[in-house]
Design brief:
Strand content: 15-25%
Radius of gyration: 18 Å
Bound molecules: S-adenosyl-L-homocysteine
Distance between the termini: 42 Å
Strand order of the largest sheet: 3-2-1-4-5-7-6
Helix content: 40-55%
Number of domains: 1
Largest sheet: 7 strands, mixed
CATH class: Alpha Beta
Amino acid sequence: MNEMELMMHLHLDNKRQGPGSTETTWLALDLARIDLTRSYRIADIGCGTGAQTIDLAQKLKGEIVAVDIFSEFLDKLKNRITCNELSADVKTLSASMDNLTFAKDEFDMIWSEGAVYNMGFRNGISYWKNFLKLGGILAVSELSWTTNSRPSELEDFWNGEYSEMDTVAGKMKVLEEAGYRVLAHFILPENCWTDNYYIPLLQSHNAFLEKFGNIDTARKIVDLDKQESDFYNKYKDFYSYGFYIAQKI
Ligand code: SAH
C-alpha cells in the first residue's frame, strides 16, 4: 500500500479530511454573491467524504459533481447523500483532479476545500478555469501565511512540506495572474483546525496503527500529523487556510 492509500485509510472514518467547517463553507458561498434561487452546475474537486459537498447541497439548487481520486471516500459521501435533505442533486466521480473529462465552460462554480495543493495551487486554478463559464465562481481553500514574516523553524517546516507556501497576498496575485477577479477572501478560524480536524485525526491514530502499524510509512504519517498539530498549536498566529472566492474573467 502506498502513502496516499494509507492516508486514505487513516482519514476514511472522519467527517473531514482537512480543516474546515459548515460555517466557513456557507460564508464562502455568501461571499460568492450568487442568486440561490437559481439552479447551477457545480464541481466539488477533492471532495473527500464530502462534508462541504453536503453543506453546499443544502443551500444550492442544481447539480453538484463531487470528484475525488478515492472511490472509498465517495462511498462515504454516497451514504451521506441518502441520509440528508438536500436541495441539489449530488453525483460522484472518481477521477484525478489534474485529468478531468469535463467540457469547456461546463460549470457555474468550482469548489475545492483543502485539496488543490495536490496538483499545486497555480496549476490547479489555471487548469480548472477551462471548465468554468465566463463569470463563473472559483471557491478554493489553500494553506497560506497570514503575516509577512514568521519564525524560521516554522518557515522551514512548511516550505519543506509545500513548495507553493505563500502569503494571502501572494495567493491572490496568483489568482489574478491566472485570469480571475478576486471577490473576497478570509482566513479559517481555529476551530476548523482543532475541533474539526486535528482532534478527530489524532483520535483515529490508534485504530490506524492497530491495522497498519507494521508499515514504516504508516508510522511516519502518524508522526507527521502529530508534528503538524504541535506546530499548529505553537504557530497558529502565522498561518491558516485562506479561503479565496474568485471569478473567471
Ligand atoms: N475537501 C475535503 C477533503 C480534503 S483532503 C475536506 O475538506 O474535508 C484532500 C482530498 O483530495 C482527499 O480526499 C484526497 O483523496 C483528494 N485527492 C488527492 N489527490 C487527488 C487527485 N489527484 N485527484 C482528486 N482528488 C485527489
